[in-house]
């Protein structure tokens, strides 16, 4: 299921500088330093892009003594994030952006129902100052990146460009220890190998899925990888491993890194 952009979102996009209304303003969540370096990289911010999804996460029970992936929960967390991301990207397309910089994905539990989670994706839509379309994603739409404005400039200066924000999710049930096993380690320094193996496997699954997305985006590699661990009110011993990063490709010849100017340091002095 897809949603059209809300009426208020459409009205907001009409008032942006990059729209047909040239007298509009831009909006961004850039810091001053990020704003400076994004512009030095040859891009102009247009406006904030937002995508939201309220999702009912289903129920799945794992075996007490067995470590295993919770497929129902993994698919729910992945699908909900994808919906939020696609809606954010739709806003970027509507405002004519070439890409989105500084994407943040957040999740919050809604107070009125413990089974409901809201997934929010937000970033700043940018457009290349010279109208170069070589920065777009492989499908012709806006690129997405969770890199900061500073890292975005550094990446371009190194001769690479962002293609797509890629991610992998794995919700995993870590087996409980038996009573006898617990008694056997009382007062001892000893590795709990079954726990180690379970946590290791869950992280590997998340990272592998992120790599698969990068390959599908025809990227050369992934930078800025971060692995988050969290439990969203599930039963004990159930945890999500979430890997996220920005897939990158080398710049084309016509947008070689030596065309990107060095940043100018700006100093401010307070009286």
Give the tally of β-strands.
8
Low-confidence stretches: 253-257, 263-271
What multimeric state do the chains show? single chain
What is the CATH T-level topology? Translation Initiation Factor IF3
Task: Please summarize what this structure is.
The protein has 271 residues and is α+β, with helices and mostly antiparallel strands. The protein has six helices and eight strands. The protein has a single domain (7-251), classed as 2-Layer Sandwich (Translation Initiation Factor IF3).
Which helices and strands occur, and which strands form pairs?
Layout: H1 7-14, H2 32-40, E1 43-56, E2 68-69, H3 71-94, E3 99-109, E4 116-128, E5 143-144, H4 149-157, E6 160-173, H5 179-184, H6 193-216, E7 221-230, E8 238-250
Parallel strand pairs: 3-5
Antiparallel strand pairs: 1-4, 2-6, 3-4, 6-8, 7-8
Helix pairs in contact: 2-4
Pfam families: YbjQ_1
Family: Belongs to the UPF0145 family.
Protein name: Heavy metal-binding domain-containing protein
Summarize the structure in words:
Helix 2 runs parallel beside helix 4. It contains six helices and eight strands; from the N terminus they run ααββαβββαβααββ. A four-stranded mixed β-sheet has the order 1-4-3-5. It has helices at residues 7-14, 32-40, 71-94, 149-157, 179-184, 193-216, and strands at residues 43-56, 68-69, 99-109, 116-128, 143-144, 160-173, 221-230, 238-250. The protein has 271 residues and is of the alpha+beta class. It has one domain: Hypothetical protein apc22750. Chain B (Translation Initiation Factor IF3, 2-Layer Sandwich). Residues 253-257 and 263-271 have low confidence and may be disordered. Helices cover 30% and strands 29% of the residues. A hairpin with a 7-residue loop joins strand 7 and strand 8 (238-250). InterPro entries: UPF0145_dom_sf, UPF0145_YbjQ-like. This is Heavy metal-binding domain-containing protein.
